[in-house]
Design brief:
Radius of gyration: 22 Å
CATH superfamily of the domain at 46-151: Cation efflux protein, cytoplasmic domain
Number of helices: 4
Number of strands: 7
Helix content: 25-40%
Shape: globular
Largest sheet: 4 strands, mixed
Structural class: alpha+beta
Length: 166
């Protein structure tokens, strides 16, 4: 084989290696999705937590979402808010599965009273899909929305009741 043919074969092999995607475990035991793009001069790795944060922020942007997460997650979130040096987790109520080129997202929310839940879920889906696809290049195969509760707000009081404390 000529020197030029050997160099071409080596370059082709490097390009095919660049298109390989693998999954590894981080030191904390969380899976890290590695998404490598062919033709780039290096590798791009996107961790699951990154996709989860993008989804969490996108879900919170929608009017009608009172909070994100189930009951237990929200209680833990309230405790985190009180502790110094911690804050609300952007991944609270979000579960993701990230593959080579695709991602699936589960979002748990508390809706505000009076909002059409089917329209709220559709808006969350659109925003989450758009944010993840634009920021990561991953194809979002599904966004499942679970509504755990409805928040009635502080100003709503049962009819006929009077305030005990003013």
């Amino acid at each position: 084989m000529s020197e030029n043919a050997t160099a071409t074969a080596a370059a082709t092999e490097r390009k095919s290696d660049a298109a390989v995607t693998t999954e590894q475990k981080s030191p904390a035991g969380r899976e890290i999705a590695r998404r490598d793009t062919a033709g780039d001069r290096g590798r791009t790795s996107i961790a699951d937590i990154v996709v989860a944060k993008i989804a969490g922020i996108a879900a919170r942007e929608i009017d009608g979402v009172y909070d994100v997460g189930g009951t237990t997650e929200r209680v833990v979130g309230k405790v985190r808010e009180v502790l110094p040096g911690t804050g609300v987790s952007a991944t609270q109520g979000i579960d993701v599965e990230v593959g080579e080129r695709q991602a699936a997202v589960d979002v748990s929310i508390v809706a505000e009273y009076g909002v059409a839940i089917h329209q709220l879920a559709a808006a969350i889906r659109r925003n989450v899909i758009s944010a993840i696809e634009q920021m990561t290049g991953l194809e979002v195969t599904e966004v499942n929305v679970t509504v755990h509760d409805v928040n009635f707000g502080d100003e709503v009081e049962p009819s006929g009741s009077s305030r005990r404390v003013e």
